[in-house]
Design brief:
alpha/beta; seven-stranded mixed beta sheet; three-stranded antiparallel beta sheet; 10 helices; binds S-adenosylmethionine
Length: 275
């Protein structure tokens, strides 16, 4: 297959930017090329130009969603950035809410949502929060959401989960499923997943909104500055005043118009409007 030309790379990058806000600069050309080449071969297309034309055509047969499933980075794991979970535990231990609603806004395979479910389940069992808690996980990718709904993971992704939590909240696979774990049904029933594009309108309240806690971690890095700001302000409309907001610790300062109080790296509280 012919190498991905700069011109075709720009066509594909412009499509992704327009639809889901992902900003790929020229340095990402090898990544785009390596992720799309096997797909182009499987479809029996002539090359990247044909594939760009297919993505641009109104009758793409669902191929745009396939590209959206292939191009963004979905890396995630349980209890990533543990300081955030410690902060949630301390805050909730102090505030002792009777009900709690959480949104994992770029949920990927669901690791963040189920990590939170383990924490909330433990806090509820200790009587430090009420029993009425739920979690919504959303992502742009169908593929990761389908996987998240099965709640099946390679053991390695739960490397930061304590043995005691693993015992309490996970079922270990045997035989052909050795090396895999599945989250217990009583946690799974508290977590719902749905498709949501952070770059599209978010005017109506999501199920569970206004949320007490919103995670928007490790997705802003893929957006350019104007998109980042718009996404953060849009997402924050779904968080209640005084609610907790998390971005990835490597994502720097959070650029937005909504007033936030900084609590720790990547951790904020939404400031309540004055009297
Ligand atoms: C690196 S993962 C982050 C997962 C998790 N939040 C964490 O910190 O481990 C980024 C996720 O953002 C999703 N994503 C990228 N653009 C998006 C958009 N416009 N709307 C919703 N999700 C998006 C990707 O599909 C991917 O699953």
């Amino acid at each position: 297959m012919q190498a991905l030309s700069s011109q075709t790379f720009e066509r594909i990058a412009a499509l992704m930017y327009g639809a889901i806000g992902l900003s790929f600069n020229e340095s990402k050309k090898p990544l785009i090329s390596s992720r799309l080449a096997p797909r182009i071969q499987r479809l029996g297309l002539g090359g990247f130009e044909d594939y760009a034309a297919l993505l641009e055509s109104p009758d793409d047969g669902g191929e745009f969603q396939v590209a959206v499933d292939l191009l963004p980075t979905n890396e995630t794991y349980f209890f990533r950035e543990p300081a955030h979970f410690e902060l949630i535990e301390q805050t909730l231990g102090r505030e002792r809410p009777r009900r709690l609603s959480v949104w994992s806004a770029a949920a990927s395979f669901g690791d963040e949502a189920y990590s939170t479910a383990m924490l909330l389940s433990d806090l509820a069992q200790q009587g430090r929060i009420g029993e009425d808690w739920s979690i919504l996980g959303t992502d742009i990718s169908d593929r990761v959401l389908r996987s998240a709904s099965t709640a099946i993971y390679p053991e390695d992704r739960l490397r930061a989960v304590t043995p005691e939590r693993l015992r309490r909240h996970c079922l270990r696979g045997e035989g052909e499923s050795a090396g895999l774990v599945q989250i217990q049904p009583r946690l799974r029933e508290r977590v719902r997943f749905g498709q949501l594009n952070l770059c599209a309108d978010l005017d109506a309240p999501l199920p569970g909104a206004p949320f007490d806690i919103v995670f928007l971690r490790n997705v802003l890095i893929y957006f350019d500055p104007p998109t980042k700001r718009a996404v953060v302000d849009r997402v924050l409309t779904q968080l209640r005043p005084e609610g907790l907001f998390f971005i990835g610790t490597a994502e720097g300062r959070v650029p937005c118009d909504t007033p936030l109080k900084s609590l720790a790296p990547g951790a904020f509280r939404k400031v309540a409007p004055g009297p």
